[in-house]
Structure formats: C-alpha cells, structure tokens
Amino acid sequence: MAEQEKTAITPTREENYPGWYQQVIKAADMAENSEVRGCMVIKPWGYAIWENIQKNLDVMFKETGHVNAYFPLFIPKSFFEKEAEHVEGFAKECAVVTHSRLEDDGKGGLKPAGKLTEELIIRPTSETIIGASFSKWVNSYRDLPLLINQWANVVRWEMRPRLFLRTTEFLWQEGHTVHATKEDALEETYRMLNVYTRFAQEYLAIPVIQGEKTESEKFPGAVSTYTFEAMMQDKKALQGGTSHFLGLNFAKASNIKFQNREGKEEYAWTTSWGVSTRLIGALIMAHGDDNGLILPPRIAPLHVVIIPIYRNKDEQNKVMDFIDNIKEKISSLRYNNEKIRFKVDNRDMRGGEKLWEWIKKGVPVRLEIGPRDVSSNSVFMGRRDKDFKEKVSVNIDDFIKNLPAFLDEIQNNIFQKALKFQIENTKKIDNKNEFYQFFTPKNKNNPEIHGGFANSHWCGSSKCEEKIKDDLKVTIRCIPLDAKQEKGKCICCGKESKKRVIFAKAY
Amino acid sequence: MAEQEKTAITPTREENYPGWYQQVIKAADMAENSEVRGCMVIKPWGYAIWENIQKNLDVMFKETGHVNAYFPLFIPKSFFEKEAEHVEGFAKECAVVTHSRLEDDGKGGLKPAGKLTEELIIRPTSETIIGASFSKWVNSYRDLPLLINQWANVVRWEMRPRLFLRTTEFLWQEGHTVHATKEDALEETYRMLNVYTRFAQEYLAIPVIQGEKTESEKFPGAVSTYTFEAMMQDKKALQGGTSHFLGLNFAKASNIKFQNREGKEEYAWTTSWGVSTRLIGALIMAHGDDNGLILPPRIAPLHVVIIPIYRNKDEQNKVMDFIDNIKEKISSLRYNNEKIRFKVDNRDMRGGEKLWEWIKKGVPVRLEIGPRDVSSNSVFMGRRDKDFKEKVSVNIDDFIKNLPAFLDEIQNNIFQKALKFQIENTKKIDNKNEFYQFFTPKNKNNPEIHGGFANSHWCGSSKCEEKIKDDLKVTIRCIPLDAKQEKGKCICCGKESKKRVIFAKAY
Fold first, then answer.
1. C-beta atoms of B74 and A39 within 8 A
2. How far apart are CA A190 and CA A275, in angstroms?
3. Which of A250, A346, B43, B103 counts the highest number of beta carbons within 10 A?
4. Interface test with B, best of A102, A103, A156 (most B CBs within 10 A)
5. Mutating which of A62, A74, A130 best tests the B interface, going by the most B Cβ atoms within 10 A?
6. Chain A window 160-179: which residues touch B at a Cβ cutoff of 8 Å?
7. CA pair distance A42, A281, nearest whole angstrom
8. DSSP designation for B298
C-alpha cells in the first residue's frame, strides 16, 4: 500500500507544524471552517470528543457540589460596562446586536429594522449577566455557597481564527460561584483548578503545570487567575483553562450582598472558571503523530473498531458470525465505568482504506478479522499507541479478557509519552544568552519549533515581562503553584528574584 | 399547618390558569425572567429537567442512527434570504448583529464599532447555515442518508414572552437529514415524529395526537409539517414539536446535490425536526395541580426525597443511622436503566416547610422518617400522584423491594390521568352552533377555559380555517394521521369534507 511508505499526514510535524495541525483535523474529519468568518463547524467526530469531555467533566462538577443552569446569550451593554477592567478586556472583540428584525430594503433585499433602545452584546463570558441573577438569589449566608455551572456557546471576535484553538464562536462551560468568605472562594478557585488538572491528566492524558497568571495575563476583572498549561509537540504552551478568584470585584459591580450570621450585610466573594472546545486542539497537538490523531481511550468516541476481511460470500458468513460472537462478548465489558464503545466497519470499501481512516481518526484499538483468524480463534490487533506495522495476533478469549487492561495501558502510554516530552523540553535556565538562544528556532523550515519551556527566575516587574515578550514573543505562562522559594536573579534584568516561573511561546 | 388548609399555589388553576402557571414555576424554582427582555434564566431545578429530556432523547436519536454536530450561531443575511418562504417566516423576529466591537463614545460610554460588511442573523433555526455544510458533505449516494442532530440555543424575537412557552432565546435540538429519495425522507420525517411521540408519552407522560399541519400552519419552507399536539389542563393545545418534510426546497436553496447510482447528479431530499425547552412548559401544564409541579419519575431530577424528623441529638443519631442504611440500599436499585436519584434533605428548617418545598417541586416520592418509624423499621411515604394527606407507613424492606414498581405506577398514573382528561375534553362536533358554543368560556373569571378539542369536519379551504380563527381564536391543530376517511360536512361552510381534523385554542 502506497500509504505505508509515506506518512498519512502531509506536511509532517517537522516540516510544518501548523500545516500538520490543519491536516490532522481534516483527515480525522473533526471540524471545518464555516462560511461565517471565524466560526467553525464541529463535525460528528470532533463533536463526539466534545461530548465525552462534557460528560466526564460534568460528573466531576456534580461530585464537587455544582449544579447546571442556563443564562441569557445576550448581555445589555450597560451590564457589560459595570466592571471597568472587564469591559476594557472584551469590548474590542464582541458581537453587537442592534436590531430585532429585517425588512424590505426596497431593492429586493433586506435591511436591519427594529432598532433596539439598548444594544445587546453576545456573551464573551457571563460574569455580568449571571451576576444580575446572583444578586437576586443571594440574600443570606444560608444561600451560600452558590455553586453554578453553565454549558454554553460564547463569542469573541477573533482576527486570526484557527480551528478549535481560536474561533469567534466556541463552546465551553463556565462555572460561577458565590461564597461568604475570601477563604471559601479561594478554596473553590483551587478546587476547580485541581478538577481541571485531574481531568487533563487522567482523561485527556495531557500532563499540565498548574500556576498563577501574572498581572498582565490575568482575566479582565479578576483578582487572580490560575491556569493549567500544557506543552504541545512544537514545544509551545497551550493554556488549557483557567480558574479565577474574583474577590469582591464582580459582587460590587452586580451588587451581590448577603446578610451574615451576625445579621450584617456584606459583599460576597465570587469565582469563575472555564474550559472550552480549545481542549480538543490541545488533544490533537499533544498526542497526534504524522499519521493523524491519537486519542486517549477515556475520551475516544470509539475504543475499538473491527474490520472484517473477506473475499467471497462464504468467507463473509464465516467472518461475520465470528464477529457477532465478539460483539456479544465486548458488549458485556466495561472500561472506566462505561460500556466499551466499538464499531464494526462493514462498509463496501477496501480494507486498507478503512484501516487508514481509523488510524487517522485515532481509534485506540483496531481489529482486522479474516477467515484465517476465525480458524485460529484469534484477532489481528493494531494499537494506536504503537507503530501501525506492529500488529499482533491475539487469542480471542485473551483479547476479551484483557481489553480493559489494554485500554488502560494505552491511556497510560499516551500520558507517559507526553510527560516525557514535556520534561525533556523544560529547562532550568539562569543565563540570559542561553535563554535567548533557547527560544530561537533551530529548524529554518519550521520557525515554529524552538526549545520549549524555560524555568527561569523573574523579578516580578512587568517591564521585564514586556521586554521578553517584545524580543522573543515569549510570555510568562504561569508562576507554578509548586515553585519553591529560592533565591536567584531575574533572567531579564538580573535583579533579585525569589521564584522561578515558566516562560514559553504560547497559543 | 396553615398550608394544609389552602392550596400551596395561589391562584388555583380554576381561578386564573395563566397566573397559576407562573406561580408553579416560581414555587418550584424552575426559571425566572432575566433582565434581557424576553430571555429567561433557567434555574437549576428547571435545567435538571432539561438535562433529563436531553439525555433520554439523545439516546433515542442515536439509536435511530443520528450523530451530533455543531454549526455556527450566526447566519449571514444572504444565506437567510435563499429560501423565500423561510425568510418571510423569520425576518420579522430575528436578532441582527451589525458590529464586531464597542468603542468609546466620547461621553464616558461605549458605542458599536467595526461595522460588518454583511449583517449576521442569530439562528432562529439552522436549515440555511447547515445546508451550506451539507452541500459540501454530500457528493454521492454513498454519503446518504446523512443523519445529523444539533443541541443548541436559538433566537426568535418574541413580543409576548412567557417562561418556557415563548422566549426570545430558547434551547432546543434540531435534526437535519439528507436522503437520496423522497420515500426515504418521508420515512425519516415520520420516524422522528414517532420518536417524539414515544418520548412525550413514555417519558413526559403526556398523551399526544400526531398529525399533519395545514398549509397556513406549516414551517416556512417545508413541503409538509407533522406535529404532536397535547392538551393542557385549560383544554388548550400545545404543539410539542414538529418534524418537517422539506422536499427539495432547501436542497435547491443550498445546492445539496449528489451523484446517484447511475452517475447522474440530482438534488437531495431533506428533513428537519425539533423540540425545545417548551416541553417543560407542557410538562407543567399537563400534570401540575394546585399544590405545584407533578413530575413523571422518568424525567424527575429526584425520584425520592428523604426528610429526617427529630427533636434532639439522640433522635437525630438514631434517625440518621437508619437513613444511612436506606441510602445504601437505594443506591443499589435501578429504575428505567438508571440509578435511583434521591436526596436526604437535612437542612436546618422545619420539616413541614421542607415537605411543602418538595411537593411544590413535584418530586414523585417523599419519605418522612422519625424515631417511631425507626423503631417500627418502616418509612412514612407520600406520593405526588396522590393527595398529600394520603401518606402510608411501609416496612422498609417492602419499600426498597417495591420502589421501582412504585415509580412505574406513578409514571403510569400520571399518564393515565392526562389521557383521561384529553379524552373527556375531546368531542366530535358536527353542528356549527354547538362548535361555537364549545369554544365559549363557561367561567367568566377565567376566560381561558373552554370546551377543549373539537374533532370536526373541514372542507380543506383556508377561508374556513381563517373564519374560525377570526371568530373564535381557534385553529386547526392538525389533521390526525389516524383520521379515517369519512364523509361529512365542513363545520364552517357545510361543504363536503372527507376527514375530521382537530380544532383547538392553542399556545
């Protein structure tokens, strides 16, 4: 087969990483650009991954006491203006609704009509509109904590859209909580950061670094923003999601007050936290190879695909009977508290073509079953965490017995590989020249690829932060939560520093 | 308790049906109006019902071969204009995005900026934007059928909004499918109508009448629209959802063509079908009573609520130990393939207050457990399908053994009650005076309440349909699919008619 000689994806990661990313999405049939600038269409394979992300995160949110609700898509302009930093952060990129109908323009077309007395903003995030409800819902300390989550679409007008990573409309969840004390709100902020981290590592198989954002990178209106950052295979960082401690800022803007145990009225402490369809971009770039997508089993729409191989009716009957038997056995198995998700691909196409389709889609386990396998009571198994040529014949009973363990092994292998990559490409750097060298691309054909994450000292000044950003397009991704107190010198100005931070180029 | 003397909801259904509806929603804490005109906030109890609707319908969609995907919120004006009837139907009530940012207006406020070259409409429904994708996805008969569903928010500018029934933004699902032949598309249209009917009857416990819409009531752009109509307790009809056979109309508008088996290019046949958060309004009005919401178990966020009753620490320990034991036993039970959803309400409030809260929220089974129940190894059970005073003491082992059966019985009782009501208030009417009398309210205090559904002959002319609408605000809800061919005379003009149709006032 021609495909086996070269890679299924052109260009390869080495040749052109952004080009490779687009082609993986196309080859796996996950999403496409729509006719509306900056908006994507999430195709069934991409959406099924999002459904698995939703399902598993939703369980984790509910286990931590949150309930779902739904708030309006529209935010009145005046609400939006209530928090100064917030509006400053989002006004430059928001969709504005100004009219409520279309009418004949007298030229055979339609023009906007029914001008609104107040413009409506399509939510870029919902702190202000949810705050309006919360100010009604919260009256007494007995109403707290209030722990709400919303699954929704949001709109941020993007100038340079990229599928999943940066789109004008995207899907996400946004948690919004209210607490009686600062401590409770901070605890919630960390709790949800930990939920995200656990989800990223245990489900998406992506190792992440937890940390706090610097002043310049925090959420507009937050007191502090916590993030989990992951390394992609081009060694750039991707912010997976954020958890914000909002202090009293939004409570003051939206008038969220409660009567405390002593009968005194005070402002409440709020948090918000969110992850989006961007996680799918992270999944692609953390694990994919030059043959396409590689999906961790816990998040894969299919765990197993079965491809029957036969040349005539007789063989077909024999093979399909055998597969019926396997289907029954697989149906009784469970993996990660769910049924095994499998599919028999019996389309009228060449077996090789099918096989490559599922490789490109990243399905963890592929079975090819022909008459000879039936005779030997075995299956021919390929795994997406291994080279596609490495296929093995496995006795069918052993296969069934070990399938959940195989999936666990694949999940773990994918995580370990990504972790090894992250560790290998994270470097403690204390010398400014070395730092600048680290972020200079080595491969002229692929200027995207450079050294990785630099773990270096920073004095805390925004001047140094800006200089490095201007010189190298490198930003401080986070101040790691586990950073040790350690004396050192700022990588930029040489002044005294107490902590190392993570510097990287970022998506 | 004072509440036991009067009803928990004021006004009652008899006193003021629309007022009762609003108060049930408020008492059950399901939703509220937001600060954005026409948009509602779906509160956790209301949203949990929507989650159960979604979860169960989604399974049914997938069992019938559909997959989920996601398409843009925005529809370019030019797309919207492609199908003449369609745009005519929706142009009068759509949100129009004209700008992509806000900028300083020089007066301390913000004004819209970044005028778009083409206005974007917030989807009121997605035929045209999804059609743009389908025209790319469909090339050959091998690509068909294409069976897609989307869970999304949509916007239709409402002049007279009512919570759940009619809101500017609402949540829904919209199925969109493409087929090679007219027969296949029609079969799909009926299949999904049947899925909806099964869901309404078996999950929402609402009996419905399936039928075809008349020309004047069909979806803008459809060849034919099928509906399922339910009777509310004010005897008005509520359209639960619709399934549209779109013929070639949208295929032509969006250029959805395929190469058939003979290698000839032809237009494809499409369908669309949807249900929305309106179903929650139907649920409230079909089953609720003067003490609040009544939820069928299959859709209830909680099946069982347990209220511990104690006066001191000793009793508390005794009761809570007993409840721990019950929790463990309930946890191992299943109802309708899911775990039993239960909650122990241990809040620091009076028992009676709690009890009434859960009655108003419609929870199917309430258990009150005090020290005496512990001593007799029993629970004190109230059921929402019975009078709140009808409580019985049940041995705990019998309770656990019979709980799934109790829930089934409640589900069935709720359905049978609604069915009886529908049958009792549906009348074959062949006399015009009687017909007019039937739709005249009997209760002057509550002009909303009248006779019910009239099953009468109609000649097929839109003139008669209009006259009845003008005279009585009564419309043809549908031409029932099971209507017999039967000679008769039009209830309006007396001309010959071949079929009876359902006339009713409607939401």
1. yes
2. 15
3. A250
4. A102
5. A74
6. 169, 171
7. 12
8. G
Cα distance between residue A115 and residue A102, in whole Å: 10
Contact B56, B279 (CB under 8 A): no
**SS3 of A206, please?**
coil
| CA-wise closest residue to A147 among A74, A251, A63 | A63
Residue B110, φ and ψ in degrees, nearest 5: -125, 145
The first and second tokens of residue A401, run together, are 């017995």
Residue from B97, B103, B128, B302 to probe the interface with A (highest A Cβ count within 10 Å)? B97
Contact assessment for residue A144 and residue A179, using Cβ atoms and an 8 Å cutoff: yes
Instruction: Identify the closest residue of chain A to B117 by CA–CA distance.
Output: A37
Number of helical (H) and strand (E) elements in chain A, helices listed first: 15, 27
The residues, any chain, with a CB within 8 Å of residue A430's CB and separated by 6 or more, are A456, A457, A488, A489, A491
In the three-class reduction of DSSP (H, G, I as helix; E, B as strand; rest coil), residue B176 is classed as strand
Which residue from A179, A147, A188, A192 is spatially nearest to A256, judged by alpha carbons?
A179
Q: Which residues of chain B have pLDDT under 50?
A: 1-4
- Predicted pLDDT of residue B84: 82
Residues (pLDDT < 70) of chain A are 1-5, 445-448
Give the pTM.
0.96
Residues A437 and A392 in one domain: no
Flag whether A459 is in a domain: yes
Do the beta carbons of residue B291 and residue B214 sit within 8 Å? no
CATH number, residue B480: 3.30.110.30
Distance CA B379, CA B221 (A): 57
* A155 and B CB contact within 8 Å: yes
How far from B444 is each of A241, B14, B253, B440, B447, CA to CA, in Å?
58, 11, 50, 10, 6
Task: Note whether B50 contacts A: Cβ–Cβ < 8 A.
Answer: yes
* pLDDT at site B86: 85
Q: Using a CB-CB distance cutoff of 8 angstroms, which residues of chain A are in contact with residue B72?
A: 34, 36, 39-41, 169
- For residues A408 and A445, membership in a common domain is answered with no
Q: Is A139 an interface residue toward B (CB < 8 Å)?
A: no
Q: Which of B42, B67, B110 sits opposite A70 (nearest CB)?
A: B42
**From the CA of A137, how many Å to the nearest CA of chain B?**
10
Judge whether B490 is closer than 8 Å to chain A, CB to CB. no
**How many beta-carbon contacts under 8 Å exist across A and B?**
183
Secondary structure E strands in A277-409: 304-308, 334-335, 338-339, 342-344, 365-369, 378-383, 392-395
**B194 and B303, same domain (yes or no):** no
CATH number of the domain that residue A338 is part of: 3.40.50.800
Chain B contact for A93 (CB, 8 A cutoff): yes
B234 forms beta bridges with none
* Final residue belonging to a domain, choices B257, B287, B317: B287
Contact list, A70 vs chain B (CB under 8 Å): 41-42, 47, 50, 171
Distance, in Å, from the CA atom of B308 to the CA atom of B325, rounded to the nearest integer, reads 13
Q: In this structure, are A236 and A171 located in the same domain?
A: yes
pLDDT at residue number B58: 98
Instruction: Give me the domain span that covers residue B328.
Output: 297-409
CB contact, 8 Å: A330 with chain B? no
Q: How far apart are CA B366 and CA B406, in angstroms?
A: 12
Using CA atoms, how far apart are residues B195 and B274, in angstroms rounded to an integer? 11
CB contact under 8 A, A41 and B100: no
Q: Coil, helix or strand for B502?
A: strand
Q: Is A330 helix (H, G, I), strand (E, B) or coil?
A: helix
- How many residues are given for chain A? 507
Task: Check the CA dihedral B87-B214-B57-A364 and report its sign.
Answer: negative
- Report residue A167 as tokens: 């789109």
C-alpha distances out from residue A468 to A209, A454, A464, Å: 21, 12, 6
CB contact (8 A) between residue B67 and residue A48? yes
